[in-house]
From TrEMBL:
Origin: domain of life: Eukaryota
UniProt enzyme class: hydrolase
Protein name listed in UniProt: Endoglucanase
The Glycoside hydrolase family domain, residue ranges: 29-474
A Pfam family per the record: Glyco_hydro_9
Organism encoding this protein: Panicum virgatum
Family matches, as InterPro entries: 6-hairpin_glycosidase_sf (IPR008928), 6hp_glycosidase-like_sf (IPR012341), Glyco_hydro_9 (IPR001701), Glyco_hydro_9_His_AS (IPR018221)
Keywords carried by this UniProt record: Carbohydrate metabolism, Cellulose degradation, Glycosidase, Hydrolase, Polysaccharide degradation, Signal
Gene Ontology biological process terms, A to Z: cellulose catabolic process
Length: 480
C-alpha cells in the first residue's frame, strides 16, 4: 500500500489516517500510533530488511565505517538530512525503549508491539556496533557541513561518510552515558522476549557506563563538527540517567549507590530533550521510590520532588511551562514539538507510576489530561485545524523539510540526482512526492501559526527525537 501512496502522492494517503477522529469525536490514536512507527522505517540507514514497509526508500550508506575497518551500517538519520549523529540517535532509542517498557500491553493490544520492538532493535543494533571496543564509541557518521550543502536522497548521497569516535584520549562521557542508557533500556525492553540479545546489550551498556565515569569530557570537544549541530551542555544528566536505567536492568547495589550518592539530581527542569535528561532520570527515580526500590530520602527524594514540580508546572501553566493561545506547550521556535512530545510522555508515564498516589497539584487524571491535550493538538485539535503528524488526518504538512521525501523515490526515478541538482526539488512549492508517514514536524510558533514550506526548516523539519516519545504516549492513551 505504501508503494502506491508514494507513486500517487498526497491525495492517496487518506486511507492511513484520513479520519481525524475514531468515531466518538476523539482523535484516532491507533492510526496515529501505527503511523508513528512507520516513520522510523522511513528514517532507516543501511540495507533495508525484507519486512520494510516504507517502499519508497532504498538501501543507503552501505560503506559506513569502512574508513575505520568497522561496520557502522544501519541506525537512523536524525532529521531531514543524511548524517548519523550518535547523541540524538541514542536518546531516540532510549525513548522508544522506555515506551515499550512502560506500555508493552497496550502496544501489543494495538498490534504494534512487534513494530515498536523492531524500531528499538534497528537503533540498538547500530549503537552496539558503534561500541567497537571497551573504550571506543563511534558517535557520528557523515559531515554535517558538506551534507547540508547538498540536497540528495540518502540512496544517492556522495558526500563524505567519515566516521568519528570518542575514546580514552578523546573522551565523550555525555554520549557514552547516553548510549549506555539506550542499550540498558533496550535490554529491559527485550529481556522477556530475547534473553540472549538483552544480555548482549546490557554488556555493552555496562562497559559504556564505566567508560563514561572514568573518562569525563564533553564529546563535542573531541568531535568538533558535532558541536555545530548537537552540542552538549554537560554530562551529569546522562550519567545519572544511565545509572538509573542500569539499576532498572540489574538491581545492582553499585548503581543504586551512584543514584543515592550523586549530588546533582538536576533540580527543577523545564524540558526533557536529547541534550537534557534529568527529567527522565527523575521520573524513573520517582517510580522506583513509589515501588519501594529506592529510599524516599537524600538525592532520590530530591529528584522526586523536582519531578513533581516539573509536572505541576505543566498542568498549572507554572514556571517555564508557557502555552500558545491554542494550548500547545511552548518552549522555543526551533522544533518546539520535541519538547511537547517528551513532556507528554513523562506526564503519561508518571500518571501510571502514581498508582493511586497524588501530587500536590492533582493526580493521574490531571497528568493524563495534559498528555492528551498535547497529543490532540498535534493531531489536529488546534486553531489551524492541521495535523502536525504527516499522513494523519485530512490536512497535514505537504512540504516537509526532508531530503528523501522531497526528491522522487529511487524506485521510480532511478537516475542519480546530484548534490546540487536536488535543490531543484527543494525550491519547488509543490507537495513532496513521497509521504513521510508518521513524521512530526517542528510545529507552529508560539501564536499557533505554521508556514508549510520546506525552506522553513525551523517549523517544517521532523526529527526522530520528536516522534520517539509519542509512541509511548499514544499507546497509553489507547489504554483508557
Amino acid at each position: 500500500m505504501v508503494r502506491l501512496l508514494a507513486a500517487a502522492g498526497l491525495a492517496a494517503l487518506c486511507c492511513l489516517g484520513c479520519a481525524i477522529s475514531s468515531g466518538d469525536g476523539q482523535p484516532d490514536y491507533r492510526a496515529a500510533l501505527a503511523n508513528s512507527l512507520l516513520y522510523f522505517e522511513g528514517q532507516r540507514s543501511g540495507r533495508l530488511p525484507v519486512s520494510q514497509r516504507v517502499q519508497w526508500r532504498g538501501d543507503s550508506a552501505l560503506a559506513d565505517g569502512r574508513d575505520h575497518g568497522v561496520d557502522l551500517t544501519g541506525g537512523y538519520y536524525d532529521s531531514g538530512d543524511n548524517v548519523k549523529f550518535g547523541l540524538p540517535m541514542a536518546f531516540t532509542v532510549t525513548m522508544l525503549a522506555w515506551g515499550v517498557v512502560e506500555h508493552a500491553r497496550p502496544l501489543e493490544a494495538a498490534g504494534e508491539l512487534r513494530n515498536a520492538l523492531a524500531a528499538v532493535r534497528w537503533g540498538a543494533d547500530y549503537l552496539a556496533r558503534a561500541h567497537a571496543a571497551e573504550e571506543t564509541l563511534y558517535v557520528q557518521v557523515g559531515d554535517g557541513d558538506s551534507d547540508h550543502s547538498c540536497w540528495q536522497r540518502p540512496e544517492d548521497m556522495d558526500t563524505p561518510r567519515t566516521a568519528y569516535s570518542v575514546d580514552a584520549s578523546r573522551p565523550g562521557s555525555d554520549v557514552a552515558a547516553e548510549t549506555a542508557a539506550a542499550l540498558a533500556a533496550s535490554a529491559v525492553a527485550f529481556r522477556r522476549l530475547d534473553a540472549g540479545y538483552s544480555a548482549a546489550l546490557l554488556g555493552h551498556a555496562e562497559q559504556l557506563f564505566r567508560f563514561a565515569k572514568n573518562r569525563r569530557g564533553l564529546y563535542h570537544n573531541s568531535v568538533p563538527g558535532a558541536g555545530e549541530f548537537y552540542p552538549s551542555s554537560g554530562d551529569e544528566d546522562e550519567l545519572i540517567w544511565a545509572a538509573v536505567w542500569l539499576f532498572v536492568a540489574t538491581g545492582r547495589e553499585d548503581y543504586k549507590a551512584f543514584i543515592a550518592g550523586d549530588g546533582n539530581g538536576g533540580g527543577v527542569q523545564s524540558t526533557l530533550s536529547w541534550d537534557k535528561k534529568f527529567v527522565g532520570a527523575q521520573a524513573l527515580v520517582a517510580k522506583l521510590i513509589l515501588q519501594g526500590k529506592l529510599p524516599d530520602a537524600g538525592n532520590p527524594a530530591a529528584m522526586k520532588r523536582s519531578l513533581e514540580q516539573f509536572l505541576c508546572n505543566l498542568v498549572q501553566h507554572g514556571g517555564d511551562a508557557e502555552r500558545s493561545p491554542g494550548g500547545m506547550l511552548w518552549v522555543q521556535p526551533w522544533n518546539n514539538m520535541q519538547y511537547v512530545t517528551s513532556a507528554a510522555f513523562v506526564a503519561a508515564a508518571h500518571a501510571d507510576h502514581l498508582a493511586g498516589a497524588s501530587l500536590r497539584c492533582g493526580g493521574a487524571a490531571q497528568l493524563l489530561s495534559f498528555a492528551r491535550s498535547q497529543v490532540d493538538y498535534i493531531l489536529g485539535v488546534n486553531p489551524g485545524r492541521m495535523s502536525y503528524m504527516v499522513g494523519y488526518g485530512p490536512r497535514f504538512p505537504a512540504q516537509v523539510h526532508h531530503r528523501g521525501a522531497s526528491v522522487p523515490s529511487i524506485k521510480y526515478s532511478p537516475g542519480k540526482i546530484t548534490c546540487k541538482g536536488g535543490f531543484d526539488y527543494f525550491s519547488k512549492s509543490t507537495p513532496n512526492p513521497n509521504v513521510l508517514v508518521g513524521a512530526i514536524v517542528g510545529g507552529p510558533d508560539g501564536n499557533d501559526h505554521y508556514n508549510d514550506s520546506r525552506q522553513n526548516f525551523k517549523q517544517a523539519e521532523p526529527s526522530t527525537v520528536t516522534v520517539a516519545p509519542i509512541v509511548g504516549v499514544l499507546a497509553r492513551l489507547l489504554h483508557n
